[in-house]
């Protein structure tokens, strides 16, 4: 029997990788996409199948985690074997600008989906994966962070995801659902959203090297993140769902890197050797060869409360699931810069298009980014 999977957030980075992974495993994949005034399916164009395709395996449905009626109808029509809840307003800085919406989509949205499964009597037959996050650890309580480390959320996003984490545990315990939380540390790829820091950096390195951008503006260069590759993390999601018993697992690489070092590596990929000068808000980075300032720190990108250090311990996932990461952060930076260079060389970019790629957090300064 062909297994059916429902993926919310299928148009996002992880949704695209997961859909591809499940199609390769022979699943019938149903993805929920939001209505948008412009195309939002770019990441899944390569796996999308037209509804007229004979023997179709990939289906897209309009939907939204803020609409219970929609979720109930989709679940009752599809009756999936596995549900992967990846949909979220996933930008931490933007969650300070849109806290209520973030709570609604990321927190209550999770409840809506779980409750829709229960209403339809799917709680004993359909397995559920919740996209939980290392942001739950927030203010450092323990290093490295593992499944038993206490949570201390530091943003509206993390607080919403805290609710989603616990409601998933509660539905597992209350109704015997096969519901698991993947506590995933940062994972990136060439499909990463353009306003997350790694992609913002790799795009800038590519654009600056091609003469399409003058400068990169960033916030906290001292933040440390445990960065892995998204393709490997979606495999871990699937592995959790295949276990006999549901449980919660950390996926991480066990290595942490400062934003500043990721910048150095990304620019080295395009042959630019950077030197950092100054401190805090006055820090800049100059091209050692030309003396030109290519990076400035901009206060607009600092968050009201920051998560300074994330470093995960993936021992449980390795021992129980057999999950392992393969790509180092340096290789990740290489792959992302190479992909951005290719993209920009193929598509002649209007200069303003690049300058306007900005982080939503700058909105508070009247500088509305993407
Ligand atoms: P993205 O931001 O790339 O994708 C988010 C997806 O959710 C998009 O498809 C988006 O649609 C969709 N979405 C947003 N709001 C709603 C809504 N109200 N209803 C339905 N769909 C919605 O995130 P990632 O792929 O990087 O992350 C996937 C999940 O994993 C998220 O829940 C994120 O919070 C979580 N996570 C991510 C980590 C990471 O490092 N990437 C680490 C830990 C957790 P659209 O394309 O239309 O915007
Ligand atoms: P994060 O990712 O907040 O960890 O959430 P992001 O890439 O946005 O930030 C990482 C760190 O870099 C610092 N930073 C900047 N960040 C952005 N976006 N833009 C900047 O200009 C900039 N300058 C410095 C940030 O302050 C932060 O410390 C991601 C998301 O995918 C979440 O959905 C997910 O849950 C977590 O990872 C794990």
Layout of helices and strands, plus pairs?
Layout: E1 4-8, H1 13-24, E2 28-33, E3 58-62, H2 68-78, E4 82-85, H3 92-97, H4 99-119, E5 127-133, H5 156-175, E6 179-184, E7 187-188, H6 197-209, E8 216-218, E9 224-225, E10 228-229, H7 230-242, E11 248-251, E12 257-258, H8 259-269, E13 274-277, E14 284-287, E15 293-297, H9 315-321, H10 329-346, H11 351-355
Parallel strand pairs: 1-2, 1-4, 2-3, 4-5, 5-6, 6-11, 7-10, 8-15
Antiparallel strand pairs: 9-12, 13-14, 14-15
Helix pairs in contact: 1-7, 2-4, 4-5, 6-8, 6-10, 8-10
Bound molecules: NADPH dihydro-nicotinamide-adenine-dinucleotide phosphate (NDP) and guanosine-5'-diphosphate-rhamnose (GDR).
GO biological process, one term: 'de novo' GDP-L-fucose biosynthetic process
Organism: Aurantiacibacter rhizosphaerae
Binding site for NADP(+): 128
């Amino acid at each position: 029997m062909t297994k059916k999977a429902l993926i919310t957030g299928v148009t996002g980075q992880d949704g695209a990788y997961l859909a591809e992974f499940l199609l390769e495993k022979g699943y019938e994949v149903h993805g929920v996409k939001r209505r948008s005034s412009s195309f939002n399916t770019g990441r899944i164009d390569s796996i999308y199948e037209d509804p007229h395709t004979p023997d179709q395996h990939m289906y897209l449905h309009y939907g939204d985690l803020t609409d219970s009626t929609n979720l109930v109808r989709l679940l009752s029509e599809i009756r999936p074997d596995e549900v992967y809840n990846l949909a979220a307003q996933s930008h931490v800085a933007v969650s300070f600008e849109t806290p209520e919406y973030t709570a609604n989509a990321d927190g209550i949205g999770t409840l809506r989906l779980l409750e829709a499964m229960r209403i339809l009597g799917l709680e004993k037959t359909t397995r559920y994966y919740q996209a939980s996050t290392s942001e739950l650890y927030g203010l450092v309580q323990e290093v490295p962070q593992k499944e038993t480390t206490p949570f201390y959320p530091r943003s509206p996003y993390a607080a919403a995801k805290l609710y989603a984490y616990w409601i998933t545990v509660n539905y597992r315990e209350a109704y015997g659902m096969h519901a698991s939380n993947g506590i995933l540390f940062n994972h990136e790829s060439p499909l990463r959203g353009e306003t997350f820091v790694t992609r913002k950096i790799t795009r800038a390195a590519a654009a600056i090297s091609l003469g399409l951008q003058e400068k990169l503006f960033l916030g906290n260069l001292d933040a440390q993140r445990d960065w892995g590759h998204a393709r490997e993390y979606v495999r871990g999601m699937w592995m959790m769902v295949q276990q006999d018993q549901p449980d919660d697992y950390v996926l991480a690489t066990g290595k942490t890197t400062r934003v500043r070092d990721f910048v150095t590596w990304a620019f080295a990929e395009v042959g630019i050797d950077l030197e950092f000068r100054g401190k805090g808000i006055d820090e800049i980075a100059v091209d050692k060869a030309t003396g030109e300032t290519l990076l400035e720190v901009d206060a607009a990108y600092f968050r009201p409360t920051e998560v300074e250090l994330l470093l995960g311990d993936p021992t449980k996932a390795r021992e129980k699931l057999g999950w392992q990461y393969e790509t180092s952060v340096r290789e990740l930076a290489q792959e992302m810069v190479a992909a951005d260079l290719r993209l920009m060389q193929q598509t002649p970019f209007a200069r303003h298009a690049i300058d306007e790629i900005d982080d939503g957090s700058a909105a508070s300064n009247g500088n509305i980014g993407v």
